[in-house]
Design a protein that fits this description.
about 325 residues, Tumour Suppressor Smad4, 2 domains, five-stranded mixed sheet, globular
Length: about 325
């Protein structure tokens, strides 16, 4: 599982008391279009100076590797886990923590050292990007008990499960994510997502979907369907501006049959939390969402910026909470 890529630093004592206070960093060297790989020596040197209790670092080698590394870290006695990368790395590490049953989530502290191209999850908490500010948070931050969602979806004819901690999107949002994965861009952030919106807008064909939530059923040719735990996605967009990561509910946004021109004229609403004011957009809060394509149509789905598969989809929250380290108030 890539143990030859483990980088050891600091005190290597393995007593349980000391190990539980040490951080295990799971690093995606390809994140940020290779920015993590370039900055890694300087980051490791600074961590060794600032974390007297020592730490361990492991590098991912392939997609999904961070899931296994997170579980390895727990087996080795670590209880403070940090991902180093962007939203995709964040999602993989969280899936590793959530999919295991050996260590209760209440005993695990998790956070992200953000060096990705999107980094939308950190916006809800103000987790700093600069290493010095991040180290201050690591030494004196506070813990938030965040909700964690589950998606059941279809992939190559079988039902699969994926945990998510930010925003899941169906229809147009998933189409954009899938297109972005197939056409890698050397740049990221807001400009990249805006460009993708324009490119994909004229390629995407709406399909009719049936959405069930709160004991009701709605059907339309939806532009997009979003379920949010946190507020931001797509490089700072707020398609679920009513999301609260600690309220035990999923924020649901249903954008109806918008025209292409309607999307273009209302793009500004994605960024200022006013999307719910559009007459064809409805905001709800619910504990569970079910989405199916009308007459067997397959609607694409993504979560935390990762393309997953297609409908039918079920979305709900698990009972356990994820203990997230964020800056002190």
């Amino acid at each position: 599982m890539g143990r030859e890529n483990l980088i050891f630093a600091g005190d290597k004592s393995k007593t349980m008391e000391q190990t539980e206070r040490r951080w295990f960093f799971i690093v995606n060297p390809a994140a940020g279009n290779g920015a993590v790989r370039k900055r890694l020596p300087a980051i490791a040197a600074r961590l060794e100076q600032a974390l007297p209790g020592g730490f361990r670092m492991a590098l991912t080698e392939y997609r999904g590797h961070a899931v296994l590394l997170a579980q390895d870290a727990l087996r080795d006695g670590f209880r403070c886990i940090a991902a180093v990368g962007g939203d995709g790395t964040n999602n993989e590490v969280v899936n590793g923590l959530m999919a295991q049953s050996e260590v209760p989530l209440s005993q695990i502290t998790y956070t992200l050292l953000p060096i990705g191209t999107g980094n939308d999850w950190i916006r809800s908490y103000g987790i700093p990007r600069r290493i010095e500010e991040w180290l201050q948070m690591a030494g004196g931050g506070r813990i938030v008990e965040q909700d964690v969602g589950v998606l059941l979806y279809q992939h190559e004819g079988e039902t699969r499960r994926r945990f998510f901690v930010n925003v899941a999107g169906l229809a147009y949002d998933a189409f954009v994510v899938q297109y972005a994965e197939q056409h890698k861009s050397p740049v990221g952030g807001k400009l990249m997502y805006l460009a993708l919106i324009l490119i994909c807008l004229f390629r995407y064909k709406r399909s009719k979907a049936v959405v069930r939530f709160n004991g009701q059923e709605e059907s339309d040719y939806y532009y997009t369907i979003n379920g949010g735990i946190c507020r931001y996605s797509g490089g700072g967009m707020q398609v679920v501006p009513h999301a609260d990561p600690t309220d035990g509910l999923i924020a649901l946004t249903l954008a109806g049959k918008l025209s292409k021109m309607g999307v273009l004229l209302n793009t500004w609403r994605f960024y200022n939390a006013s999307i719910g004011r559009h007459p064809k957009v409805n905001l709800y809060q619910t504990a569970r969402i079910e989405v199916a394509g009308a007459e067997g149509t397959l609607i694409p789905v993504e979560a935390d910026g990762e393309f997953l598969g297609y409908t039918p989809v079920e979305m709900y929250l698990v009972t356990e909470k994820l203990s997230v380290l964020i800056p002190a108030e």
